[in-house]
Design a protein that fits this description.
There is one protein chain. About 10% of the residues have low confidence. About 20% of the residues lie in helices and about 30% in strands. The longest helix has 26 residues. Strand 2 and strand 3 form a beta hairpin. It contains two helices and six strands. The protein folds into two domains: about 30 residues; about 80 residues, Nucleic acid-binding proteins (OB fold (Dihydrolipoamide Acetyltransferase, E2P), Beta Barrel). It has a five-stranded mixed β-barrel with strand order 1-2-3-5-4. It is of the alpha+beta class and about 140 residues long.
């Protein structure tokens, strides 16, 4: 009887671990983005979310579209020069992204040109190799 109870618990535990690993793998998948294509949008930041596991930029464009741009984690972004205060509501930006495959207005950040002229990517090796110096002072 003890063997059956142990076998039942083992099966239940294995099932839970399998379900959990599928959701973890799905979370870290970039399959929803068309990484063979890039789209450039220019607009106004409505929200900049500096959160784990991914940061987001929400951008409203002149043609009345709202774009949600997924980024890496804050710790990865900081390695390529990002700071939580780099963007705020109302900032004008130009974003290059890999669009969603389903055609909705969203994508994965490739790079963004900030209001001060700096260009930042989506972490080390993703976008500009070094953060650009920004616009010259006048």
């Amino acid at each position: 009887m003890k063997f059956l109870r142990t076998a039942g618990l083992s099966t239940a535990l294995l099932t839970m671990l399998t379900w959990g690993s599928e959701s973890l793998l799905a979370h870290h998948s970039f399959a929803m983005f068309d990484t063979a294509k890039s789209v450039t949008i220019t607009g106004t930041v409505s929200t900049f979310e500096w959160t784990n596991p991914h940061a987001y930029i929400e951008v409203d464009t002149a043609d009345a579209k709202h774009w949600s741009v997924e980024m890496g984690s804050p710790s990865i972004l900081m390695q390529s020069g990002w700071k939580f205060k780099d963007l705020k509501h109302g900032d004008k930006v130009t974003v290059v992204l890999n669009p969603l495959k389903d055609g909705k207005t969203g994508g994965l950040l490739v790079q963004v040109t900030l209001p001060d002229g700096r260009t930042l990517g989506n972490g080390p090796g993703r976008g500009p190799t070094q953060p650009s110096a920004g616009a010259p002072k006048q």
